[in-house]
Structure formats: C-alpha cells, structure tokens
Amino acid sequence: MPFSSLGLPIFITKGLPAHDYEKPFPIQEQAIPAILEGRDLLGIAQTGSGKTASYVLPILSNLIGNMDPDSRHVNVLVLVPTRELAGQVADVFRSFSTNLPESVRTVSVFGGVSINPQMKSIRGVNVLVATPGRLIELESKNAVHLSTISTLVLDEADKMLNLGFKDEMTQIFNLLPKKRQNLLFSATLSDDVSAVNQLLLDNPVVVKIEGEKENLSLIKQVAYNVTEERKGPLLRYIIKNNNFKQVLVFTSSVFQADNVVDKLKSNGIEARAIHSKKSQGSRRESLIAFKQGKVNVLVSTDLLARGIDIENMPCVINYELPRSPKDYIHRIGRTGRAETPGDAISLITEEDKHHFRVIQKKMKRWVDMIESDGIDLHNY
User: Fold this and answer.
1) Which of 311, 17, 38, 35 minimizes the C-alpha distance to 2?
2) What pTM, to 2 d.p., does this model score?
3) How many Å apart are CA 332 and CA 224, to the nearest integer?
4) For residue 262, what pLDDT is reported?
5) Sheet (strand 219-225) strand order
6) What is the model's pLDDT at position 351?
7) Is residue 380 part of a domain?
8) pLDDT of res. 250
9) Residue spans of the chain under pLDDT 50
10) CB-CB neighbours of 86 under 10 Å
11) How high is the pLDDT of residue 338?
C-alpha cells in the first residue's frame, strides 16, 4: 500500500521519497486516515514502529489552511516525557515541513535549561512539543496560550505516567479547549493509560501493533569484565582485533556517544554518532554512510536505536547497558537477522554486574563472561 492511498495531500506525499519513506508502516496505514478525518486515536505500538510519522504527516496535512494567526496561540500540542524525545519529535515535524505550501513553525520546550530563550522562541509557533512541567511554567508566565489547541498528542503516555507526570497532565488538560482532536500513543496499555484514555478520548479509533519478537538463536553473545578505565581501549581492541567492518555501538547518553566517537576517530577508526542532538539531515547522512561501508562504527543512544534497521549487521556492542532487559534484547536484535549469524558483545564493569544478571534472567539465557585483565591493551 503506497502513502498516496492513505488520503495524504500531494504536497506531503511528493516529499516522502527524500526521507526514504517508500511504503507506510502498519501503524501509519491505520492511523493516518483516521487522523486526517479528525478522529480521536489510541495507538499502542513500540518505539521504532513508525508512530511519530503516523501523526506528524496527517497533522501537517490538516494544519494547512487552518492555522491560528495569533502569535501566542498554539495550534498543535505534543506532550512527551523527556527533552531528548521533545527534540526528536520537533525534528520530525520540521523535516516534513520544508516543502509545505504554508510555513509551519515547530518549537520544542523542556526543563533543565533557561526558560527565557524558550519564552521568546514560542512566539508565532504552530506546533509546540513540550514536557509537562516546562509547559506549565510557560503558561503560568503567560508566554503561551492553550485555548486554541486543535490537536493534542500524548506521545509515550506510559512513560509519562511512570515518571509521575499525571498531576501535571491533568492540570494541562484543564487549560485546553473542550473541542479538540486527541491522539494518545503508548507502548503498553496499562491501567494508568486506560484511565487517561477514558478521560481524554471520544469514541477513538484503536490501533494496536504487536511488537516484533526478537530471535536470539542466531546471536552469539559474550561479555567482557572490564574496569571503567579500560573500557575505551577494550572497545577499540575488539573492533580492530576482530577486523569488524560494520559495528553498531550503544551508549546510554548523548554525551557518551560523542565521547566514544571522538576516541575511536583519534585512534584511526572511522565512526559517527547518531542521537537526538544531531539534525535530521546529519543522522540520515551518517546512517547512509554506515550502510554503504564508508563508516565502520555507528554509535547510537536507545532513543534512536529502534529506527536503525540494517540487513546483515555483523556485530552489536553494548558500551553501556540499557536500563531495561527489553531494550537490551532489542539492541542485540539488530544483528542475527535474515538467517545470518551475528555477534553481540557487552562491556561489563563491577557496577554493571547485578543489572546484567537481571537482564540475563529476564532473557532466560546466560552469557559467557570473559576476563579482560589479561588482554594487552597497550597502543589501543
């Protein structure tokens, strides 16, 4: 099924090939027509299933010709749990807004940084992507008015509720107009999500996409016991000693991803980072270079990992462990696909050992541990 059959206008569909969008994901097939019709929607789908574009594309389509000219009144509000996701979602809106017949301005706001620049940046905004706490701060200072919101999106609602945003979300709901379109996306349908669903959604279209089950049988897993100081040299040793030409490395933060790339490059290994602080164009360029073999190592955070799908990936390395066993399984599932074996390697410090045991228990598979003390890492 092509995107053109989903009811999207030609000014949207003609730009999709430039973003490597050839055919819609299952959630896009079901969600886009419903959102275009103005229906409320509950989408249950894992991160990486294509859900962001499933609401961005129809929202942009519906905005054209229907934007409020008032400089302080927002048309679309997207609530997200983290600053990283806020930046990522805003980037997707911007990337698909470049060839629209009208200018659509998207801004992301979040805590942890000065509020004053954000207050200035949201003048004339059409799409506001926000974490709940910072949005409430901005509204209390009269920097933004929510009375003209036509579409509300809750992205990763399960995570927002787990992180304790329930009270803030209720406060925000009370500031919104009664008549609006509501779109709720979540990885799971927990009791809290069901309660928010009943509070928010009016006769919604329900789209539930089952997550793919990772097949671990083709993945050879090993782990190295290593001190924090020797972790970087050990990573470079593993890559060089095994003559790996294509390696996907996972870190737990943007800072660490950039740091690992810098150290790899300074030691003669061509590497690039892909994370939420990189522009959409930069991420796409790095991914293409990696697929073409021009870059040997791609270093990613979990936030973007689910969008990386490369055939015959030979090796995945966990430079740092993820928070959850599910994320670990998804990470290593990037290799060992299409009947092609792959290697999954984890670097385990003393502090990681308990968490790694929990991951193995949940995975129901024990991983061979290798002591790295005897490995000569001189010149690595």
Assistant:
1) 17
2) 0.66
3) 15
4) 96
5) 271-274, 297-301, 247-251, 315-318, 342-348, 219-225, 368-371
6) 94
7) no
8) 95
9) none
10) 24
11) 61
CATH at 71: 3.40.50.300
Q: Are residues 191 and 238 in the same domain?
A: no
Q: Which domain holds residue 367?
A: 219-371
Same structural domain for residues 64 and 167? Answer: yes
Same domain, 16 and 139: yes
pLDDT tens for each residue of 267-305 = 999 999 988 777 767 877 888 888 888 999 999 987 655
Same domain, 167 and 232: no
What pLDDT does 212 receive?
56
- Residues 276 and 303: beta-carbon distance below 8 Å: yes
Tokens of 114: 């000065």
The 10s digit of each residue's pLDDT in 161-214 is 877 888 898 899 999 999 999 999 988 787 778 878 787 888 999 998 876 555
Q: What pLDDT, on the 0 to 100 scale, is given for residue 309?
A: 62
- Residue 351's φ and ψ, nearest 5 degrees, are -70, -20
Task: Identify the pLDDT of residue 261.
Answer: 95
Query: What are phi and psi for residue 90, nearest 5 degrees?
Result: -60, -40
pLDDT tens digits, one per residue of 230-239: 999 999 999 9
Burial zone of 91 (CB within 10 Å; 0-12 exposed, 13-18 middle, 19+ buried): buried
pLDDT for res 70? 58
CA–CA gap between residue 51 and residue 28 (Å, rounded) = 7
Give the 3-state DSSP-derived string for 89-131, with helices as H, strands as E and coil as C.
Answer: HHHHHHHCCCCCCCCCCEEEECCCCCHHHHHHHCCCCCEEEEC
The domain boundary residue, chosen from 208, 233, 266? 208
Q: In 10 A of CB 217, how many CB atoms? A: 8
